[in-house]
Design brief:
The chain is built from nine helices and no strands. It is an all-alpha fold. The chain has one domain: TerB-like (Orthogonal Bundle). Helix 2 packs across helix 7 and helix 3 crosses helix 7. The protein starts with 16 loop residues before the first helix and ends in a 7-residue tail after the last helix.
Length: about 180
Amino acid sequence: MSCYSDSSTAPPAAPNPKYTKAGLLWIYSEELNFKTVPPPGDFKGYGQAILNCCKGDGIIHKKERAFVLGYFKTFGCPDDVLDYLSTYDAEVSMEEAISISPQLQMCSRAAIYDAVRACDGDGDLAALELDAIKALAALVGVEEGTVNDIVAIHRAEQAVKTARLQITYPLGAPF
């Protein structure tokens, strides 16, 4: 018996709010060491700021936006905000995005980390994107040296991920 089922003929199951909430708590705990799921509603400004960084090189690449949307979906972002961010093109200033996002200010280093990962979503953390990240960092009180440390951690994580995938799927991804 395979651990994968052919669900192409079965209708999708309706989400179970109990399990959705448990899943959110698990991802917040596993990835961020949070003890509770934070209140909803902060994704818009946070997403604007990150996508503004992605546009540092002049364009929000499809893979960068896909990272932001996928990441936010994982953490329970409301559909209306996902719809908004799916077409957002950095028309809001970084200062305005920060002003509507208390969590971005409270979790400023995490926001810088998320911006680095999003900007590298297309496989190229461009110099102009890094400049935009450093500008965001300055606005939220994160020193340039810390930004450089975050970039180094991201690159190390990418190297570990590549090694893990080569070991666990030596013939490539099966799906």
